[in-house]
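For reproducibility, we list the full input for the magnesium ion complex.
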Amino acid sequence: MEKIQLLIPGSKIKARVRELGREISLDYQGLNPILVSILKGSFLFLADLTRAIHLPHQIDFISVSSYGSSTHSSGVVRLLQDLGTNIEGRDVLVVEDIVDTGLTWRYIRNNLLTRNPSSLRIVTLLDKRERRVVDVPVDYVGFVIPDRFVVGYGLDYQERYRNLPYIGALEDKREI
Ligand code: IMP
Ligand code: MG
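The corresponding predicted structure, in tokenized form, follows.
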């Protein structure tokens, strides 16, 4: 078992998600956006965020996996499950757990842009900014975090810890 250090308590996540919901509700007034949750990591964030957005909106899911080790993104992304919705002319808000190198978001962004949405933005719970390797726009950020490998609130290490109600950092992460 890995040791996990508390980084962001559940109460702070809850408060921040409410703020993000308010901000998004203001920005999308009069629109009918579609939230596109990137599985699996963002499932809890999506569940809380959708309840904090007080305007009509839809949700859909896209599932991707990145090749490479479990703690480092290779930038090669595989689409496991596509959207069920045609997003042409729609206001699309992608919901991510974390933007790290930015490679996954760049891939998804380029993919979705070919479908001609009316607008395309991202809300990410976590932003590991100092690790960015590609310059890709990030619109809404819950928390900027340091370069640590984090788990909980949807994020996993080898499919574990997604159920933790807080964000924690793996203390003695072995890179594999
Ligand atoms: P990126 O392509 O490097 O931006 O990485 C994005 C994806 O890598 C995220 O959607 C996560 O699935 C995964 N990831 C990156 N950093 C972490 C972390 O600290 N904990 C868990 N997953 C992470
Ligand atoms: Mg993810």
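The chain has three helices and nine strands. The chain has a mean pLDDT of 93. Both points were considered when choosing residues for closer inspection.
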